[in-house]
Amino acid sequence: MSFTMTSKDYVAYINIAAKKIHDNGEYISKLDATTGDGDHWANINMGFENLVAAGPEMETMPMCDVFKKIGMLMMSKIGGSSGVLYGGAYMAAGKAIAGKETIDSKDLCLALDTMVNDMMTRGKAQPGYKTMIDSLYPAVQAYKACLERGDSDADTMAAVKKAAIDGAEETKKMEAVKGRASYQANKGVGHLDPGAVTMSYQLECLCDYVTANLL
Ligand code: ADP
Ligand code: MG
């Protein structure tokens, strides 16, 4: 039996992720100042502040509409590449779970898989390009493998979280192919990609939320 995630759960998770992002402002801004233009934290934090503000309204919507609403807010409120990429990804995920009032583990995996595919197409990026995809892609692969094996939800969430965090860590060694770090002479080698780190925060909070509250 899979867990069931409601809109209330998703809003609760968003609030936790917003706090995690908010609390790591100095660290993330420093990472983006090193390999980019320094605004990644301000961009993503502003987006999450808007999501938190829309929380009470989103709690009353079916899950498919929550994803669409998050997509529209991220697209319109977050500046930079991340706004377009997260916005498009969430809107695509909303379509993938069309008609769903709540979602189960398979649906959540489908939503995340849809997101990473949309990001790769929209951003013309692949895993290994030193972007946020390097956290989300391995997390989705781990999720799919767990579902195929029939692992428990607890084991699945632990595996997804680990893959997301390890994936972000891997960006340290990577040469940037897309995004601002690719304009640098050393292509950002030796530094973590800020977008991969904020992606891993979100996936970590999501997995922890499911484990603590839905299993
Ligand atoms: P910008 O680079 O426009 O200033 P942000 O600072 O908000 O935008 O976000 C930077 C992050 O966006 C990078 O750390 C990287 O993870 C991600 N990123 C940039 N370009 C791409 C792309 N083409 N595909 C996927 N992710 C990307
Ligand atoms: Mg930037």
> What is the number of strand segments?
2
Q: Please give the share of residues in helix.
A: over 70%
C-alpha termini separation: 10 Å
Shape from CA axes?
Answer: globular
Give keywords.
single chain, binds adenosine-5'-diphosphate, 10 helices, mainly alpha, two-stranded antiparallel sheet, binds magnesium ion, 215 residues
Report what the structure shows:
By secondary structure, the chain is mainly alpha-helical. The protein is 71% helix and 2% strand. It is built from ten helices and two strands, in the order βααααααβαααα. Strands 1-2 form a two-stranded antiparallel ribbon. It is globular and about 50 Å long. The protein starts with a strand and ends with a helix. Bound molecules: adenosine-5'-diphosphate (ADP) and magnesium ion.
Short description:
The chain is mainly alpha-helical and 215 residues long. 71% of the residues lie in helices and 2% in strands.
Write the layout of secondary structure elements.
Elements: E1 4-5, H1 7-23, H2 25-35, H3 40-53, H4 55-58, H5 63-77, H6 80-96, E2 103-104, H7 105-123, H8 133-149, H9 153-170, H10 194-213
Antiparallel strand pairs: 1-2
Helix pairs in contact: 1-3, 1-10, 2-3, 2-10, 3-5, 5-6, 6-7, 7-8, 8-9, 8-10, 9-10
Bound molecules: adenosine-5'-diphosphate and magnesium ion.
Magnesium ion (MG) binds next to loops.
